[in-house]
Amino acid sequence: MEQPLFTSLPSFSIAHPSIEKALIHRPRRNRQMAAIRGLVQETHLHPSQLIAPLFVLEGSERQLPIASMPGIFRYSLDLLLKEVIELYEMGIRAIDLFCVVPTEKKDAAASEATRTGNLLQQALMRLRQEVPDMCLMVDVALDPFTDHGHDGIVNERGEIDNDLTLPVLAQMSILAADAGAHIVAPSDMMDGRVAYIRRALDQAGHSRVGILSYAAKYASAFYGPFREALHSAPKFGDKKTYQMNPANIREALLECQLDEQEGADLLLIKPGLPYLDVIAKVKEMTNLPVGAYHVSGEYAMVMAAAQNGWLDANRIFEECLLSMRRAGADFILTYAARQIADYLHKR
Ligand code: PBG
């Protein structure tokens, strides 16, 4: 028997529904079947929102695993092409290329980064020709190319020199654009590089090539597996003089504002899951598209637990990526792109 809401009202023979009860039962009515749950779902994950980071290797018929990233490989160009075609068929429409540089080609000036005809250029030309509708992005930073593993040029005082680095980043961007990249993605965190690269691209006739700026990139311990893949761990010091302090969020807003003013087309927050608050705040502040980088360490943690049978990798990845979407990420760079696209299709 229901409690009448107002005791002064005459009592009816039928139980009078209390407002409390109507409200209490409301949320679950919308969860009672998959069809309604689908109607009220606020955030979606679709392969078209994912960017697959890919590692390209010299030679042919080479496929090297990365111990800390099960399921992810470094491919020579012939096999990379196959992988990109398969990704396209699975609905993934963007890739981000990283170059594996042999130790003997690394030097203090990152010369290989700006050598015409380097592996990055070869890969871009081939991909542009064979998979013309795939959006081709290139990571722009010097760490895979320097013998010390830092993202910039080191000056005689042993500092990562901001202004000595800018022309090298610009040259790297122009080479990428010449070879067919649609978007360059500076990940180096030097100041002023978005404006510098924008001007260099325009002057070289590449005004249509976009800039995805790693606007708020933190000095994170989550990049370990990536550095294993590229043998690019810094040989001295750390990256704290250019990457951000994980404790800061207002500084991230400042970085994003500056990059927007300098001409960035898209902003990236990196890593992803530990920085959902940053994604949400940046999204409120800007009208540019905002992306998240679900980085190598985030991938590695899940795969390690999955290999122990402790977590279901597909479900965890879906939940992590959805969380980034919910926080405000329009697109996500993730090593799980292929796996999740496959999982979403099969459901
Ligand atoms: C290069 C770069 C890094 C990552 C993307 N671009 C490594 C670093 O800054 O040390 C990390 C990506 C990942 O961990 O997945 N500047």
Structure explained in plain terms:
- The chain is an alpha/beta fold and 347 residues long.
- Helices cover 39% and strands 16% of the residues.
- The protein has 13 helices and twelve strands.
- The protein has an eight-stranded parallel β-barrel, surrounded by eight helices. It has a two-stranded antiparallel sheet with strand order 6-7.
- Strand 10, helix 10 (276-285) and strand 11 (290-294) form a beta-alpha-beta unit.
- The longest helix is centred in the middle third of the chain and has 17 residues, at 162-178.
- The protein is globular and about 80 Å long.
- The site of ligand PBG has 12 residues, from helix 8.
The run of helices and strands is HHHEEEHEHEEEHEHEHHEHEHHEH
Question: What about the largest sheet?
Answer: 8 strands, parallel, barrel
Q: How are the strands of the largest sheet arranged?
A: 1-4-5-8-9-10-11-12
Ligands bound, unique: ligand PBG
Mean pLDDT figure: 94
Radius of gyration: 24 Å
Sequence stretches where pLDDT stays below 50 over 5 or more residues: none
Helix content: 25-40%
Short account of what is shown:
The protein is of the alpha/beta class and 347 residues long. Helix content is 39%, strand content 16%. The protein has helices at 19-24, 26-29, 34-39, 77-89, 119-130, 162-178, 193-203, 224-230, 250-262, 276-285, 296-307, 313-327, 337-346; strands spanning 50-57, 63-65, 73-76, 94-99, 135-140, 153-154, 160-161, 183-186, 210-217, 266-270, 290-294, 331-334.
